[in-house]
Amino acid sequence: MSDTESDKDLLAAVQAALRAEHAAVYGYGVVGGRIREGRRTEARAAYDAHRARRDELRRTVRDLDGTPEESAGAYALPFPVPDAAGAARLAADIEDKVAGAYSDLVRAASGRRRRAAADALREAAVRAVRWRGGSVAFPGLAERAAVPSASPSAAPRT
Question: Per-residue DSSP letters for 69-102?
Fold first, then answer.
């Protein structure tokens, strides 16, 4: 594979992770509005972590001479989130999707970028376990076949 192809693959993987972080930031807005009071601090910490990762990915895209993709105005939720239980389920789903995007970035990156992607994958997997109350065998991989990715929408479904 040429350097140009690997650079294109890396940029595509970074953009995909950025899209996942945009969706995560949006999704945690929904989670925060429906989660029970005892877990709001956890939801806020996850929201802040995803915002920080999103901002770092924007810088990375620019470093790779790309233009960072913008967030959609709204995202379709994968299922209705009428209450705190649904919010916790959504948070776990968000983290699964983010882990999947970072697993692709781990494969595409090297050096410092690969380490950062692996750290983000681990953090998403740990948050998913906390929200779900249990773990999966291969975070970022097993869920991808069963969990469709968040998609932009004109209006959120709630």
Answer: PPPPS-EE-SS---SHHHHHHHHHHHHHHHHHHH
Report residue 26: phi and psi, to 5°.
Answer: -60, -50
HSE-CB of 72 using CA atoms within 13 angstroms = 18
Calculate the alpha carbon distances from 68 to 11, 72, 95 in Å.
Answer: 10, 12, 21
Gap between the Cα atoms of 109 and 132, Å rounded: 29
Question: For residues 72 and 154, what is the distance between their CA atoms, to the nearest angstrom?
Answer: 8
In angstroms, the first-to-last Cα distance of the chain is: 44
Distance CA(8)–CA(2), nearest Å, equals 10
CA 11, 143, 25, 86: dihedral to nearest 10 degrees?
Answer: 170
Q: What is the mean pLDDT of each run of 10 residues along the chain (158 residues)?
A: 73 98 98 96 98 98 97 96 98 97 96 97 96 72 45 39
Closest to 24 in 3D by CA, of 4, 43, 47, 2: 47
Name the residue with tokens 């953009």.
15
Single out the residue of 129, 124, 78 nearest to residue 103, CA to CA. Answer: 124
pTM: 0.84
